[in-house]
Amino acid sequence: TEKQTDFTEQPHELSSIKKVIGIVSGKGGVGKSLVTSLLAVTMQRRGHSSAILDADITGPSIPKAFGIKKKAMANELGLFPIKSATGIDIMSVNLLLENDTDPVVWRGPIIANTVKQFWTDVIWNNVDFMFIDMPPGTGDVPLTVFQSVKVDGIIIVTSPQELVSMIVAKAVKMAQMMNVPIVGIVENMSSFKCPDCDKEYKIFGDSNIENIAAEYNLDILAKLPIDPRLAAACDGGLIELFSGDWFDSVAEILEKDIAE
Ligand code: ADP
């Protein structure tokens, strides 16, 4: 099989990016953007410089989660990402659209080309960890993105509402095709803790995630509960203020990777 590096595009000559992690999901609405944001915030808090490339072109939610209203600027050298309040570099189609409620109705090849340009034309200055909020699904668009960007690892986001075994199987197959290792699975919305009685509820039932992870020899990196404070932080543009240690163990895995 072809190696992923045989056809990937070179980043901008002024860019410096150490590690690139792609966040994938089976469909939209399972929390892929939230997980991407929390990973970037966690790594930034731990002293690394983080970046987010928002490749979810038709459903870009990263700028809103970070409360970014400014538009991205370009000059003859290239396109510049916007820095979040804590210094995370962000590029998203919403930072380019004049009116960010305009729907993006582009077809697959144009979407894939836009993401490619986010990689080749944006000046990503001194990035330790770049997190790519991938287009949802395991179809043509994410596949094309994986072909143009050199990704070092994939994190799969699932939720117990879905047919998790099928999604994981497809993501594993995509990763194998692209020759990219899977860092592991994050299960989102796995439970809800009642704020009054502290009792934990499995709202969507049992996901069977342990068995599925074992079947494919994957690690479960984190189980994120349904937490109204997370939704409020996303909606209010305050995701950088989240509190919780859900991603500390993932951070350790990613840090070990970069030290090697
Ligand atoms: P995706 O990127 O997969 O389409 P999002 O990350 O945009 O999904 O999440 C969809 C919505 O669900 C957002 O409004 C987000 O704030 C909310 N959400 C996701 N995960 C959680 C969670 N664990 N607790 C509370 N709200 C969540």
From TrEMBL:
Binding site for ATP: G26, K27, G28, G29, V30, G31, K32, S33
Regions crossing the membrane: none
GO BP annotations, alphabetical order: iron-sulfur cluster assembly
Residues of the signal peptide: none
A GO MF term: ATP hydrolysis activity
UniProt KW keywords: ATP-binding, Hydrolase, Iron, Iron-sulfur, Metal-binding, Nucleotide-binding, Plasmid
Subunit structure: Homodimer.
Family: Belongs to the Mrp/NBP35 ATP-binding proteins family.
Its biological purpose: Binds and transfers iron-sulfur (Fe-S) clusters to target apoproteins. Can hydrolyze ATP.
The protein, known as: Iron-sulfur cluster carrier protein
Native source organism of the sequence: Peptoclostridium acidaminophilum DSM 3953
Shown residues within the full chain: 20 to 279 of 410
